[in-house]
Amino acid sequence: MNTVVEACGFGLFDAAILALAAVGFTLQFGASNVFNLAYAAVMTACAFVAYWLTVTVGLDPWLALIVAGVAGSVLSSAMYFGLYGPFVRRGAGPFVVVMVSLSLLLIITYVLEILFGAGFFTLNFGLSGRVAIGALVWSQLEVVIMCIGAACVLLLHLFLRYTRAGKIVRATAGDADLARNCGVDTRKVMMLVWLLSGFLCGISGVLYALNTTVFSFDSSGDFLLLVFAAAVLGGVGEVYGAVLGALCIGLATELTAIVLPGLKEVAAFGLLLVVLLVRPAGLLSTGRAVEEEAQEAGAAAW
Questions:
Q1: What is the pLDDT of residue 225?
Q2: Single pTM value for the model
């Protein structure tokens, strides 16, 4: 029983990081309909930003985490307005945009190899103590990471549900054309979405690097698989679905590790396949009419 409890505890820890990354990924897709495979490369780039700032510059690690988030915002918004947006406006189909994102992923990956080399790197935030909560024992770093993940998701929830800008984002994600016809300036919405999701991407990239102990220029492959699985499991474009998908995958992988330690990652995709057989659109689907959200956004338009 203790083993199961510990596995659930580690599953919650994994889910906190995964949810943060998956929410940013699905937020981008929901608002702009861009399936951004380069998302994981931005995560890796931001981990290297934090590494360079802490090791070379000597910046405080927690301040470096914020700067890495800002770097994610800048890089993500530059990718959308410099490449994705122009392709979409010229009528490029989803497959073309996916190929553009794949090209960006490879470009960023090999630029990182040129800048930092092919070795392995480690981030150290200086937290080494242990925290016991009932039968669960976490490291101080794990507790801090879970708190950061939960706080970011909670703040995003409050933003989307209770602010005028958040309502506009939700309406645009539901139907951009309808929202535009209701008076929404979708270009401003896209700027906001890609800055916000890029910040979540940067933060999650640093937290992933902390969790995996070591990372390298090609760690984006490891990041992308689990982020993709969580986003699709919950329903691509569904912010709350991404959180639920991350929770399911975090628990499934750690519980599987009790019986089959070498197959914990396989469990994530096995769960994904089973769920998609039953609910092809993912665990959550939009429950509110798009027209209602668009009209509400039009009333609150900037």
A1: 80
A2: 0.86
